[in-house]
Structure formats: C-alpha cells, structure tokens
Amino acid sequence: MKTENPFKFGTVAHGPYFTNRSSELQFVAAALNGANHLVVISPRRYGKTSMIHQALQLTDRPKIELDLMMVTSTTDFAAQLLKQVYKIYPFQRIKGFIQQFKVIPVINLNPVTNTVEITFSAEAAGKPVLDDVLNLIENLASADKRSIVVLDEFQEIHHLDRKLAPGMRSVMQHHKNINYILMGSQESMMREIFEQKKSPFYHFGLMMNLDRIPHDEFESYLSKGLEQFTPQSSDLARSILEKTGSHPYYTQQLGWFVWEQLRNYPDHPDPVNSAIENIEAMHDLDYERMWNNLNKTDQKLILGLIHENTPLLSGQNLVKYGIGASSTAFSAIKRLMHKGYIIKAGQQYVPEDPFFAGWLLKKRGESII
Ligand SMILES: Nc1ncnc2c1ncn2[C@@H]1O[C@H](COP(=O)(O)OP(=O)(O)OP(=O)(O)O)[C@@H](O)[C@H]1O
Ligand SMILES: [Mg+2]
C-alpha cells in the first residue's frame, strides 16, 4: 500500500508525476537540435513549464530561464537575466564581457548564501543593457554547445515597453549559438506577437500549441495512481476526467483529493464528488472574490456559457441571459479570455476552472451534483 499521494499540482510536474507528451518532447528536441527557435502557446497550467523542463533535462547544454511575469521593467529584465547567467558561468569568464557593457552593473556576490544581487545604477538604462545581456549569452555559448534561453510569459514584453519587441528581435536574430524558447499563456497576445505580419517577431520560430493531455493516456495514469484502493480505478479515472475535461492541472488536483478521500475512507461511495466539495470549500473565498470582480455583463455571459454548453450564445440566449447585442457578448468573451477566466476548449468557451462552475451553481441554488 503506497502511503504517498501519487498526484501533484501547482508546481512543475516531473519524474513519476509527469505523463505523456512524447510527441511534444520529440518536437522540442528536433527544434533544439537544429538552429530553430520555439514558440510555445497554451492556456495557463496546461503544462508548458513541465514539458520544457522535461525536454531540457535530456540535454547538458547551458540553460537560462526567466519568467517575464516577474520582471518590473526592461532594466529589471536585463538584471534578472544576467543573474541567471551568473548561475551557470564562472565570474572570471563573464568579467571581460561585462566591462564592455554600455552601463556597468553593480554586482554583489554573497559567498555565504551563494547568491548574487545585480543592479544597473541607471534604471533608465533599459534596452541597451538588455541587448548587452542577450549578446553576452551569445558570446558565452559556442557553436558546438549552444545555449537554450527560455523566456516564459513572453507576451509581457508588451507591458514592459511597446517598443521593446523590434529592438529585441533585431538583436536576437543575429544569435547563432542560442535556441530561444518563448512561451506564453495569453493566447491572443502571443498570436499577435508571432503571427501578425507586421509584428517584429512574425515567424520567429516553430509554433507549438500545447494541448490538454490525451484522455486515454491520462486515464491510465490516474487509474494506476488509484488502483490500490479499488479494482474499478479506471471508472474513477474516467469520472475524474469527465469533471475536469482532461485539464492537466485540475485533473491532478482532483486526482490528489480523490486519493486522499480514499486513503481516509476506503469505502467512500462517491469519492469524486466528495473531493470536488473539498476543493470548492477550499476555494470559496477566491471564487467569491473572482465573481465579485466581474461586471454584470461578464457574470451573465459566464452563466450563459455554463448553462447552455454551446460554442457561442445564440440570439435567443443573449436575450435569455440579458446580455443584449452579440457585439457585447464578443467583447465580454475577449475580456474574460484575456483575464484567464474562460478558455476555449475545442469549439466551446468554458470557465478556466472546471470547479468554479459547480461552485457558482450551488451558490445560486442551481446545483448540478
Ligand atoms: N505532463 C504532465 N503530466 C502530468 N501532469 C501535468 C503534466 N503537465 C502539467 N501537469 C499538471 O499541470 C500543472 C501545471 O503545469 P505547469 O506549471 O507545467 O503548466 P504551465 O502551462 O507552465 O502553467 P503556467 O501557465 O502557470 O505557467 C502541474 O503542476 C501538474 O499538476
Ligand atoms: Mg509555466
């Protein structure tokens, strides 16, 4: 009897927690083995970081990663990137290049904590220092050991500075010793950056749309994790996937809670719905806050999508839910997608969090379970 929950959610899935993605991993390896860059797009928590980490584990090339969601300005972008460079190259190798920077950074090495603090005295240094850091990474790499630079939530460059993209592209396009992996979860912004002809990053790399984990593979993974409790673990697995629509994060989350239910009550008659109740209770406050932050049109649209389960709301439904014109519905969809509250699953728009719908209907006394 295993005593450790075999499911994991929230952080990067690795080792036994990582499943499938074999064709995607092959695609990433092919891109990295050649001179191509890669652009990975998926809604939040579909498994971009997990998949890329898995692929990177298979190579001993220098890897530099940065999440652009965490940077506050172009200068901070440069400083954080330089910090990552320090983690993998000895100071002696970097020193000479840094002396050539347009703005020299202030670097504090803490030998006790083994950490490094980097600041550029001129906060306005921005673009030129970022160019310097990107060129530094190129110079440190070599043709036979090219570096891999992963920039997560890449669409954030637009929030840092609208003029950043053309400048970055003009520097990055000359790099021969780097494979860039640019990832993002704001689908419309990512497409604007990489698929619009007028965008500087148009056709910059191979495009990869990361989808959900295929149903059957996910089913065997879940079933295996639950088999110690019941010979019907495949039924449980299917029931979990039906609730989560195979969304990687929410499937692992529900799997985790179902496993805990069964550990505590091995004869539980309905562990899946009971686990969902636990999840809803845990998120009660978040869900309430999220709902209250929506304007009335967005609230009506979400209710309409949950109830009608159709690709788009028909004219009749727009009246039924008091939304009004279809243009109003379209802008609400755009807004809600942008905020990450709804996602497109197949032809359908659905709440990003599959447990939110159940919570909402229960709160409104329209419970479905
Ligand atoms: N290949 C996988 N096998 C099993 N579970 C996975 C897999 N990929 C992702 N998950 C589940 O989804 C969760 C989110 O994964 P990950 O953080 O890699 O997604 P992401 O797309 O990078 O998310 P974010 O948009 O927050 O950056 C993981 O914690 C794990 O529970
Ligand atoms: Mg991620």
Q: Overview of this structure, please?
A:
By secondary structure, the chain is an alpha/beta fold. Helix content is 50%, strand content 12%. The chain has helices spanning 22-33, 48-57, 74-88, 91-98, 126-140, 157-160, 164-172, 187-195, 215-226, 233-244, 248-264, 271-282, 284-292, 296-308, 315-320, 326-338, 354-363, and strands at residues 38-41, 63-67, 105-110, 115-120, 147-152, 178-184, 206-209, 342-345, 348-351. The protein has a five-stranded parallel sheet, sandwiched between helices. It has a two-stranded antiparallel sheet with strand order 3-4. Strands 8-9 form a two-stranded antiparallel ribbon. The model has no long low-confidence stretch (mean pLDDT 92).
Please give the domain count: 3
- Name the CATH class of the largest domain: Alpha Beta
Radius of gyration: 23 Å
The CATH architecture of the largest domain comes to 3-Layer(aba) Sandwich
How far apart are the termini? 31 Å
Bound small molecules, which ones? adenosine-5'-triphosphate, magnesium ion
Name the shape in a single word.
Answer: globular
Strand-residue proportion: 5-15%
Got a strand count?
9
Give the overall average pLDDT: 92
CATH superfamily of the largest domain: P-loop containing nucleotide triphosphate hydrolases
> What is the helical fraction, as a range of percent?
40-55%
CATH topology of the largest domain: Rossmann fold
